[in-house]
Amino acid sequence: MVARSHSGWLALVPVKELPRGKSRLADVLDGDARADLVLFLMARVVRACLEAGLAVCVVSPDADVHAAARSLGADVLDDGGGDLTESVALALARHAGATGVAVLAADLPHVTADDVRTLVASARPLALVAAPDGTTNAIAACPPSAFRPSYGPGSAERHGGTRLRLAGIERDVDTPDDLGLALTACRG
């Protein structure tokens, strides 16, 4: 059963197909290890969102991702394998009736429920947490129609909104240098 929020907010967590996930780590992790890492990090994000009181929908074309998400209490949406912008746009269209929507990257090893609550509370109409490289790690929109997804290099600037500094959301895992974050989170 999906945990429903009394506030009507929904968290969207997009996840690539497991064989394509974390491809920049292929020099240091084999395919199985990358898949395990993706599922571990996704679970941390989903749990933080549920603890913050948001319903969660994991957006992915991957059946194993769907099964893992459902086991955590999240709903799922098959995005057909589109790119991130297409996947989020599809999910926003499907959930246009939500009070608000938070879209969080699935690779945030230190995200907390308090981070998610702060992000959601700051959405007037948009609040954003950028990654160090200028991409968007999380964005919240109230109403959902205030957000027009445009992911990729420089997306944080294009998306706009109130910029937040939330350490648990700013740090993601994209490169071998980032793996220390995930290892710390595993121990924590």
Estimate nothing, just give the exact number of structural domains.
Answer: 1
Largest sheet: 7 strands, mixed
Order of helices and strands: EHEHEHEHEEHEHH
Structural class by SSE content:
alpha/beta
Query: What is the CA-CA span between the terminal residues?
Result: 27 Å
Q: Key terms for this structure?
A:
188 residues; Spore Coat Polysaccharide Biosynthesis Protein SpsA, Chain A; 7-stranded mixed sheet; disordered N terminus
Please give a structural write-up.
By secondary structure, the protein is of the alpha/beta class. The protein has a single domain, classed as Spore Coat Polysaccharide Biosynthesis Protein SpsA, Chain A (Alpha-Beta Complex), CATH 3.90.550. 37% of the residues lie in helices and 17% in strands. The chain has helices spanning 31-51, 63-72, 84-94, 113-121, 155-159, 167-170, 179-187; strands at residues 9-14, 55-59, 75-77, 100-104, 126-130, 136-141, 162-163. Strands 3-2-1-4-6-5-7 form a 7-stranded mixed sheet, sandwiched between helices. β1, α1 and β2 form a beta-alpha-beta unit. α1 (31-51) runs parallel beside α2. It is globular. Residues 1-6 have low confidence and may be disordered.
